[in-house]
Specification:
It is a single chain. The protein is of the alpha/beta class and 319 residues long. The chain is 50% helix and 12% strand. It is built from 13 helices and 8 strands. It has an 8-stranded mixed β-sheet, sandwiched between helices. Helix 1 (11-21) crosses helix 13 (310-318) and helix 4 (44-56) packs antiparallel against helix 5. The longest helix has 17 residues, at 61-77. The two termini are 20 Å apart.
């Protein structure tokens, strides 16, 4: 769990929200694991059935093979004979997939000793992923810690986007820097970081227009925004947060790869987890892309963005 938010989101609260959000995934796929392991014997059918569950939950072919290979090796090495013991081995491997991702940013890992101030967070993603509300929820997490937040209304293509972000920011107590519709988004980001610096804010969260990852010109514009941020603060952005919609399944992997190449993504916020039966995409993202999932959307309220806890996530799938 990101160290900074431990006061605002106690582990028990994260566990509860995660368990509720994973109800569909658990009922549709992971709930079958208990029945598979109740057979008693460890045979080829057991491995095939576990493979079907993992693939069905969108864990992905490569990651599924990696997980089951590791579990099989431990079964052989530890001389496991009871299929019920496979459950704990499987949980261990799933947690390891999520926790072994290297830390990439400068704000949200336990490795952080000195947090940059203001921390600059560039938020990117395709249209419809819940990016704007995720920004508001992230601002709310910081505000819950008593920290000041400046939000940049960098989606200047739509006046409605500026209005929506402004309304959310006012609701959670964040300050907004906005230009008129059609303004240069890089200029908005530049001014927002300057405002955060002069006001002594803890963090500047930079919104960007939602864009299809297949549109070269739009992705190039995103690179420009990043360059402008770097001119304002050579150490920034300290995190590049990609917002992905969990309901898109394997397509989220394709999106993540494109954004990672364009702006060096450091973390993932996975939204709409409560709306999908395929929450296993979390494992594919961590394993195949080497990107840490830092936040999960667990509902529509302002406090429904939870810091991601790998152990709580896996436990919720098996409870």
């Amino acid at each position: 769990m990101p160290l900074f938010f431990r006061r605002a989101a106690p582990k028990e609260q994260v566990e509860e929200k995660t368990e509720v959000a994973l109800q569909k995934t658990k009922r549709s796929w992971f709930g079958r694991i208990a029945g598979i392991l109740d057979r008693g014997s460890i045979d080829e059918d057991l491995w095939l059935d576990l493979e079907e569950v993992l693939l069905g939950a969108d864990v992905g072919v490569r990651t599924t093979d990696k997980i089951l290979t590791a579990v099989k090796e431990r079964v052989q090495k530890e001389h496991v004979r009871d299929s019920h013991e496979v459950r704990e081995l499987l949980k261990d491997e799933l947690i390891d997939i999520l926790e072994s991702v290297p830390f990439k940013g400068q704000l949200w890992g336990d490795e952080v000793e000195t947090v940059p101030r203001p921390g600059v967070i560039l938020v990117v993603g395709v249209n419809g992923t819940g990016k704007t509300t995720s920004i508001a929820k992230l601002a709310h997490l910081y505000r819950s810690e008593g920290e000041s937040v400046v939000v940049a209304a960098g989606d200047t293509f739509r006046a409605a986007a500026i209005d929506q972000l402004t309304a959310w920011a006012e609701r959670v107590g964040a300050q907004v820097v906005a230009h008129k519709e059609g303004a240069d988004p890089g200029a908005v980001a530049y001014d927002a970081i300057g405002a955060a610096q002069s006001r002594g804010a803890s963090v500047a969260i930079i919104d960007t227009a939602g864009r299809l990852h297949t549109k070269f010109n739009l992705m190039e514009e995103l690179r420009k925004v990043r360059r402008v941020i770097e001119r304002r603060d050579a150490t920034a952005p300290h995190e590049v947060l990609l917002v992905l919609d969990a309901t898109t399944g394997q397509n989220a992997l394709i999106q993540a790869k494109a954004f990672a190449e364009a702006v060096d993504v450091t973390a993932i916020a996975l939204t709409k987890l409560d709306g999908t039966s395929k929450g296993g995409i979390v494992f594919a993202i961590s394993d195949e892309l080497g990107l840490p999932v830092r936040f999960v959307g667990t509902g529509e309220g302002e406090d429904d963005l939870s810091p991601f806890d790998a152990e709580a996530f896996v436990e919720a799938l098996f409870e």
